[in-house]
Amino acid sequence: MWGLVAATALVLAATPLTVRLAHRIGAVDQPNRDRPRIHQQPIPRIGGVAIAIGILVPYLAIVQPHGKLLGIAIGAVLICLVGLIDDLKGLKPSAKMLATVAIACIPVIGYGVRFEHIGLPFFGTLDFGWAAYPLAILWIALVTNLVNLIDGMDALAAGLVAISCLTFAILAASFGRMQVAALSLIVFGACVGFLRHNYHPAKVFMGDCGALLLGFVLGSLAIEGVLKSAATIALAAPLLIMAVPILDTSFVVAKRLKYRRPPWGADHNHFYHRFLRIGFSQRRTAAYLHMWAALLSAYALLLRFVPPRPYGNWDMSHSIVAAVAGIGVIAASVWMVYVLEILKERHLASLRIIRRGGPDLEAGEHEEAVEEVLTATPR
Hints:
Elements: H1 2-25, E1 28-29, E2 43-44, H2 48-63, H3 68-88, H4 93-111, E3 117-120, E4 124-127, H5 132-150, H6 156-174, H7 178-198, H8 207-227, H9 233-241, H10 243-258, H11 271-278, H12 282-305, H13 316-341, H14 343-350, H15 353-357, H16 363-375
Antiparallel strand pairs: 1-2, 3-4
Helix pairs in contact: 1-2, 1-7, 2-3, 2-7, 2-8, 3-4, 3-8, 4-5, 5-8, 5-10, 6-7, 6-8, 6-12, 7-8, 9-12, 11-12, 12-13
């Protein structure tokens, strides 16, 4: 708890200093400079430096990590530096990905941060053997980039990571992994402190230095806090907790591949873009996505503390509770996707695509016309 308080206070104090530094060195995000943006004013983009200070100082001073957790700290520092270089100078997506994979090797290969087996219902425990190393590296790199990709709107990424870390803290504590729980709460506190300055209208962005740092730590926490357990919840919990960024990125990448565009390109097809096109404000959009993530995380906690199969034996009352709650979660998720997808024809009309193309335009051509507008960089 002291780590949480210290992280929040440090980020609250350090963020205004990073804003001043950003203006002095020109680390300011210009709207419509190199890819589609939501904001219309120049915003400092190295707020992740304050997040790094808020995480690493109490982590090293209070938790005093050693072994595997020290490997996570070393990797966090390096990935933050990679992100900072990208914020200041710019890096190719391929270079960032290679750097992320290389840095993920430090905690995985150097310090043993990996999951060697997973418990699967009806199948028992699945041992990965030598594949545990590449799987752990791939997982950390994937989560790192998930957070980086979702960081496109005020308060969105910081809020989603805060919800995830609070959930991981509870789960890690339930498994008796208190140092992991402490780090999770520290990251939660850092995100809460940053939200004070990042909530719409944002005074600062976390930038790649913050997004890559949070994603790297989040992926590592998932392994050390939950995935290393043989319980079935070990696999279900991370997927539920990070379902929103996973679904968002999967949808966007699928769209880009469908139209033969590079998957790392920029467009306006993220969930938050769709909410904004419906007419939601940035605050309301962030609130909806945060509530969706919180609902999925709450269901993960329910499965942990009211498991359908306690001690390997099915419990009827627990199973009914899990099933009823699961139906509610699925219904809420389906409604969310429905709200985002029903926009298609309405958005065509608002963009005057139908008028431009005429009534004889085929449905597929309608969709391609929308994609042309959504992927065009604003001038």
